Amino acid sequence: MWSRSPGRTVSPDGTRVAGIQSLHDYMAAANAAYYATRDPLGAAGDFITAPEISQMFGELVGLWFADLALRAGAGASVAYVELGPGRGTLAADALRAMRQAGLAPPVHFVETSPVLRARQQTAVPQATWHEAVESLPTDRPLIVIANEFFDALPIRQYERTARGWRERMVGGVPLRFISGEMDCAEAIPIQLADAPLGAIVERSPASEAILASLAARLAAQGGALLAIDYGYEGPATGDTLQAMKAHAYADPLADAGQRDLTAHVDFAMLASIGRIHGLRPGPCVGQGAFLTALGIDARATALAGRNPQRAGDVAAAKARLTAADQMGSLFKVLALRAPHWPEPAGFA
Length: 348
Ligand code: SAH
Known about the structure:
The protein contains 10 helices and 19 strands. By secondary structure, the protein is of the alpha+beta class.
């Protein structure tokens, strides 16, 4: 499957590029090739995520889900939806915790990678898979979990140049950044219009479109969305594009399709898109505060008590997930809920 448009040609592995394309199209093609061909998670892969660090993460998300569904009076009708579920670890841990609370919702995964779908099938065999959010069920409330999903979607970058705002393109051999020709001032949030020369503004059109589509659904059907990712509350300037290979930072323009490309998530943008489409956003809090409010200390004590020889590992995992200098504050949590749904736990 080659993607073509005037002036560019990208092979499925993203390596053959003729002419110039937007950073957005490059990132989309490179990540599609990357995720389609491997399981990138874990020690032997390129990066690790919270659910792979400890079962406590998925379990607490599961209890969060059960508490919200039960208080909304939707325990019998709600579906569990996850966007980009990776190895299915978060879902498996969450569903196990939910069963303890008497909840066994149907499971729907939105996943494009065949390799990761196969992993998810082993972890959660009863799931139903979707290519995109549009085919999710329309007849029931949905609680949607997205952990490190939005960061993997392609971004557009705009740079303030002497000629005005220009989109960042990539081209040449070796690949390098090139300034686009068209004026892009209309894409820049008004608060940033006068940013200094060299400033970079990012937008994630795919994140905005997926959220808009889901939000309209949730507002009509009931439910909520929980987004957990590294990010910031914009509008802000800054180049957050990064590449990871074998757990180290790498050049995002080298070896297209062979390294994980991500960008930080603008949580204020997600909240505002949700609000426009009828949802109520809560506050954006650090992952550390969220997991602590949900009871990670008690869960860690219980796990360590049952398995004293693993007490050190449990304590290390808890610190990794919650400490301010690890994942506790760079990673943020935002919940958006249908107007008639109760406030979710974890944000007080
Ligand atoms: N949530 C998991 C995996 C994070 S990696 C975890 O926390 O471990 C990003 C996930 O999003 C992968 O499962 C990847 O295949 C999926 N993904 C990336 N782009 C996607 C897209 N456009 N649509 C659906 N899934 C996508």
